[in-house]
């Protein structure tokens, strides 16, 4: 199908962000028509997203941090062009004011099925500042990348290694292998975040990606300073970032917990004040799998429906435990998780009740217990 029906267009305009109707725009066969529709209907909504993010960035890093940046969007093409290249992505992001090329950017990228953030430099002149910041602040940058589960790639590694070999390297090992290249070399460097699965129908659901953008801005802004021949000021930006994140540490310590601990064996008796040692098996939880579960099932409890964001506002947005339907302690080995089928969001209360028995209660059993206790239908 080569066009979008008028009835569908009106539905698209009414959506706050990216709904299933807008995803359909990517399936338009004609390149020029697809670019026009994406530019008309999707890019403005990405621009709303970036404008809200810029407001947050100014609050966190200071009012002057965006002085050398401007918002840019794609797709774009010359009005007189007869056709345009295939358009598989729509974006809104930041570039440096006063330059013609757009080869150093931090931006939201939207494909037909996902939304994520990417920072990149596409040749030596733009790629090198990113490399310099990462090398000069290796420990702190590594912590940011590891904590966010971000991906990183670069053509500047010499000798060239395969993608498979690159995946085996730790972040610091990869960064140490990156080389500064000459200004005219077309060598690129990328950092990208985990994706949110579309559709995304409100800004609250996009908060994890907004937070990713804010976090990577510390690296991007420092790279801009290097590009402009100034001190990178990364430490200043990192302090601002950590000051912003600190009030959320209580929330984050739970939402990023890698396991739900087993209860201490209550059969043993302990004297008051005695030292006791507890050993539990903690199996790694993939943060990307966790996020995909939330993207698919939402952040409300699958059992009781409790939503922390509605009750606690900004502090509670996106907060939820993720429960493995098949306990990892029973598997005792690595296995490939299907985030949609194997995981479910549950509130801490329901999660605790699930684990009151070994083997754990099923979600359906807890629902029935809750229904019986309330004397009403959930």
| Helical coverage, percent range | 40-55%
Mean residue pLDDT: 81
Content-based structural category: alpha+beta
Helices, by number, come to 16
Oligomer: single chain
* Shape call: globular
Order of helices and strands: HHHEEEEHHEHHEEHHHHHEHHEHH
Low-pLDDT stretches are 1-14, 248-285
What gap, in angstroms, lies between the N and C termini?
42 Å
Largest sheet: 7 strands, antiparallel
Taking Cα atoms only, what radius of gyration do you get, to the nearest Å? 24 Å
**How much strand content do the residues show?**
5-15%
Beta strand count: 9
Description:
- The structure is a single chain.
- With 378 residues, this protein is of the alpha+beta class.
- The chain contains 16 helices and 9 strands.
- Strands 1, 2, 3, 4, 5, 6 and 7 form a 7-stranded antiparallel sheet that branches. It has a two-stranded antiparallel sheet with strand order 8-9.
- α4 (124-136) crosses α8 (207-227).
- Mean pLDDT is 81; it is low at 1-14 and 248-285.
What keyword list fits this structure?
378 residues; alpha+beta; 7-stranded antiparallel β-sheet; two-stranded antiparallel sheet; 9 strands; globular
């Amino acid at each position: 199908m080569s066009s979008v029906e008028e009835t569908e267009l009106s539905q698209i305009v009414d959506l706050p962000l990216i709904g299933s109707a807008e995803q359909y725009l990517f399936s338009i066969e004609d390149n020029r028509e697809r670019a026009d529709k994406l530019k008309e209907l999707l890019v403005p909504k990405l621009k709303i997203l970036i404008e809200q993010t810029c407001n947050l960035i100014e609050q966190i890093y200071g009012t002057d941090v965006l002085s050398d940046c401007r918002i840019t969007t794609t797709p774009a093409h010359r009005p007189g062009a007869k056709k345009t290249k295939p358009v598989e992505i729509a974006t809104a992001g930041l570039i440096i004011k006063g330059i013609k090329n757009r080869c150093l950017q931090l931006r939201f990228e939207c494909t037909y099925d996902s939304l994520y953030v990417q920072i990149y430099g596409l040749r030596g002149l733009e790629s090198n500042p990113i490399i310099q910041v990462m090398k000069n602040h290796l420990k702190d940058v590594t912590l940011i990348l590891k904590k966010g589960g971000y991906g990183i790639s670069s053509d500047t590694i010499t000798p060239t290694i395969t993608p498979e070999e690159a995946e085996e390297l730790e972040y610091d090992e990869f960064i140490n292998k990156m080389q500064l290249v000459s200004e005219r070399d077309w060598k690129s460097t990328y950092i990208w975040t985990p994706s949110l699965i579309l559709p995304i129908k409100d800004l609250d659901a996009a908060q994890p990606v907004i937070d990713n953008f804010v976090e990577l801005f510390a690296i991007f802004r420092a790279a801009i300073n290097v590009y402009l021949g100034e001190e990178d000021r990364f430490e200043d930006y990192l302090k601002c970032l950590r000051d912003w994140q600190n009030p959320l540490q209580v929330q984050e310590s739970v939402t990023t917990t890698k396991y739900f601990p087993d209860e201490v064996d209550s059969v043993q008796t302990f004297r008051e004040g005695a030292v006791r040692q507890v050993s539990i098996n903690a199996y790694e939880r993939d943060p990307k799998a966790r996020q995909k579960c939330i993207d698919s099932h939402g952040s409300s409890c699958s059992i009781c429906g409790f939503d922390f964001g509605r009750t606690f506002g900004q502090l509670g947005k996106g907060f939820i435990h993720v429960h493995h339907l098949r306990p990892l302690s029973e598997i005792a080995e690595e296995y490939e998780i299907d985030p949609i089928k194997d995981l479910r969001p549950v509130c801490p209360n329901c999660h605790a009740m699930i684990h009151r028995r070994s083997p754990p209660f099923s979600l359906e059993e807890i629902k029935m217990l809750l229904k019986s206790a309330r004397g009403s239908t959930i």
